[in-house]
Amino acid sequence: MNENIKDINVNKTAYQDLIKPYEKEALKTLQELIQIPSVHDEKTITADKPFGQEVENALSYIAKKGEELGFHVDRCDNYVTELSFGEGDKTFDIYAHLDVVPVKEKNWVHQPFSLTIDNDIMYGRGVSDDKGPAIACLYAVKALMDKKRLGGYKLRFLFGGNEERDSLCLEHYFHVLKKGYPTIGFSPDADYPLIYGEKSIYSYKASYDIASDHIKPFQIGDALNIVLAEAKCEVQADKKLVEELLDKYTKKHPEVKIKYFDNTLEFIGVPYHGSMPYNGVNAGLHMLNFLGHLFDIKLLRDIYDDYKDGKGEAFKGNYRDEYFDCTTYNVGKIAFDGKHLVLFVNTRFSPAFNIDTVIKNVTLNTGSEVELLGGSIGFIADPKSEFIQTMLKSYQEETGDYESKPLAIGGGTYSRESKNTVAFGAQFPNRDYKMHGDDEFFPVSDFFANMQIYAHAIDALSEYLRKDK
Fold it and tell me: 382 Cβ partners below 8 Å, 6+ apart?
């Protein structure tokens, strides 16, 4: 495939020379890790496999690899694999995750769980979110370890198994195992140059009373943080009427594909990360809209109108401030039992606003019964602090990019689960690695560039920690 991207230019520095001997091994490790389909699996969850067999396989793999590389290994009740090095009063954490979102293999050109390199671009589920960045960072640490550039503090490299769902991995690490928060930390789970602010992220379910004998019960959607891209339901309706409406609907909405066979309607949209639902096409919402027109159910059409823009403008739910220009609402799952329709929604908004305000507004202006499912408050860090400026300078000196500015984002990174922690890389400006999408990718050159940047940043942060404060 041709992703039509330009190479990232990095400077020839001492850190490029430092990581060069580790590139081949890092690539091999990533290849082996991608082959583990570490999607949360309810069917194989046990007391010692809290997120299922395949996630456990990934956490176990990195534990063995960490031992080989010279780290002390703590499995943390199999919620997290902690690789640590050194001791000291100060702690430096790095957070990465090995769980990945589900895939629809039929939509992939390349095999999602077999790392494929095509035209110098790596394809595979998790290659950019977050296995690729995790391994780039791991071997940057290894290179510094071998050169005895670490020490004077305790380094903890945490690989979690539940970031894509509820981050129960770090919840267990900090609140059950009572591991302390770090002096500083970062997560390679977002964008460069770095993320100093993140939206609050919560999920809720909105229930509606809708009875219809013409629509069979259905459950659609895989995850709340992915735009619902495939929807299917069975209907009882005049075939000719359905086909006539299909013709009209597809002309008005060419962005969605619709199939009709054996009294079944199938809608195909475009998946996208739940932090930016307006960049995808929600097949579930289109299905509701179509059914609303087919059976003259105004409430279904209203639901589509409420959520179609992904920003909540229709129900006055788009909260903004100086850091964040919009609120988002992603409908990730929909269920219908014949009498009740339930939407499962992921919402993201500035931490300046309260979740109670958001939920109250949705309840008041959408006519639904809303139940909060859970979530976490976002954060805003001081972009002028020495900690953040140290990372920014490392990125700038390795890339020569002095134009890109630190970001405040809608996506939730692993850094929000800790304290004194921000997200740092690994996606470069003006890149889109299709995280959570079909044929997720990561250029090999970007992978090596990340190793170089992380080596510089970790080295510089080590010096920062060794200062007397």
Answer: 196, 388
Report the sign of the C-alpha dihedral through residues 271, 275, 278, 283, in that order.
positive
Return phi, psi of residue 448, to 5°. -70, -35
DSSP strands (E only) in 285-433? 328-336, 340-349, 369-376, 379-380, 407-409, 421-423, 426-427
Query: 408-445 burial, b for 16+ CB within 10 Å, e for fewer?
Result: bbbbbbbbbbbebbbbbbbbbeebebbbbbbbbbbbbe
Q: Where are the beta strands (DSSP E) in 65-165?
A: 72-74, 80-85, 91-97, 116-118, 121-123, 154-160
Residue of 136, 114, 124 whose CA lies nearest to 426: 136
Do β-strands 116-118 and 328-336 pair in parallel, antiparallel, or remain unpaired?
A: unpaired
Could you tell me the pLDDT band of residue 50, with boundaries at 50, 70 and 90? very high
Q: Which helix (H) or strand (E) holds 12?
A: none
The CA-based angle 37-221-96, given to 5 degrees, is 40
Q: Using CB atoms within 10 A of its CB, is residue 145 exposed (0-12), middle (13-18) or buried (19+)?
A: middle
Q: How many helices (H) and strands (E) does the chain have?
A: 11, 22
Mean pLDDT over residues 334-363, rounded? 97
Give 253-307 as a DSSP string. Answer: -TTSEEEEETTEEEEE-B--BTT-GGGSB-HHHHHHHHHHHHTT-HHHHHHHHHH
Supply the DSSP string of 209-230, one letter for each residue.
Answer: E---SSB--EEE-S-TTB---E
pTM value? 0.75
| Number of Cβ atoms within 10 Å of the Cβ of 292 | 19
Q: Which residues pair with 441 in a beta bridge?
A: 123
Q: What angle do CA 173, 426, 384 make, to 5 degrees?
A: 80
Q: Around Cβ 241, how many Cβ atoms within 10 Å?
A: 10
Helix, strand or coil, per DSSP, at residue 190: strand
Q: What is the DSSP letter of 136?
A: H
Cα separation of 358 and 362, whole Å? 6
> For residue 5, is pLDDT > 80?
no
What are the angstrom distances between the C-alpha of 94 and each of 16, 122, 188, 257, 381? Answer: 21, 24, 8, 42, 17
DSSP E strands: which ranges in 161-199?
184-187, 190-191, 195-198
Q: Burial of 340 by CB count in 10 Å (0-12 exposed, 13-18 middle, 19+ buried)?
A: middle
Tokens linked to 142: 């290894």
Q: Which helix (H) or strand (E) holds 34?
A: helix 23-34
57 contacts 138 by C-beta, under 8 angstroms: no
**pLDDT tens string 284-325:** 999 999 999 999 999 999 999 999 999 999 999 999 998 899
Q: In what order do the strands lie in the sheet with 264-268?
A: 230-234, 264-268, 257-261
Q: Which residue's structure tokens are 């020839």?
A: 12
